[in-house]
Every structure is written in structure tokens, then in C-alpha cells.
Design goal:
By secondary structure, the protein is mainly α. It has one domain. About 85% of the residues lie in helices and about 0% in strands. It is built from 4 helices and no strands. Helix 1 packs antiparallel against helix 2 and helix 3 packs antiparallel against helix 4. The longest helix has 24 residues.
Length: about 100
């Protein structure tokens, strides 16, 4: 169950990170409420996951999911540039996430 909590925490991490672009500096109410609620959910799920998983595994996977998700959704939703170097380095982060999963 801890891995499911960690996965949900990562999804929430992606949600609030991407949602920040829609808050317009927290001047738009609904996106701002969404970001606050999803960030609370992210921390809550991370807390549940960290009860059983080592923090040295849970935290890097959680942040890594956020980084990869922000990269992917930034490219898709906001037309942010996707360069070879960015893909290489995000791929390295993904390898680290997978590696930590199997090292747990």
C-alpha cells in the first residue's frame, strides 16, 4: 500500500506543480484552491508512504515524479522547449527513480 500512496503523492505533486501556472500568481481563485488542496494531498500521501518506506527512497521518488511530470506537462501544455540535453537529463532522473524503486 505504501507504494500506492507514494504514486498518489507523486501524481498530486505533478498536479500542484502544473496548476501553479494557472493560478496567475495566486490571483485566480479556483486554480489557487486546487493547488493548495492538491499540495496538501501530496504531502499527506507522502507522509503515509514514509511510514513504511525509507525516507531516502520515498522523498527522491516523490520529487523525481514531480520533476518528470513538470517536464512532460510543461512541454505538452505550455509548449516549453524539449531539447536533447533536457531529455537526456530528465531520462537520468527517470533512471534514478526506477533504480531507487528496485533498491528499496
Amino acid at each position: 500500500m505504501s507504494w500506492i500512496y507514494l504514486f498518489l503523492a507523486g501524481l498530486c505533486e505533478i498536479g500542484w506543480t502544473v496548476g501553479l501556472k494557472y493560478t496567475d500568481g495566486f490571483s485566480k481563485l479556483l486554480p489557487s484552491v486546487f493547488v493548495v488542496l492538491v499540495s496538501i494531498g501530496s504531502l499527506a500521501f507522502l507522509s503515509l508512504a514514509a511510514q513504511k518506506l525509507p525516507l531516502s527512497i520515498a522523498y527522491p521518488i516523490w520529487t523525481g515524479m514531480g520533476v518528470v511530470g513538470a517536464f512532460v506537462f510543461g512541454a505538452i501544455l505550455f509548449n516549453e522547449p524539449v531539447t536533447i540535453l533536457r531529455v537526456v537529463f530528465v531520462s537520468m532522473i527517470m533512471c534514478g527513480i526506477v533504480g531507487l524503486r528496485f533498491a528499496a
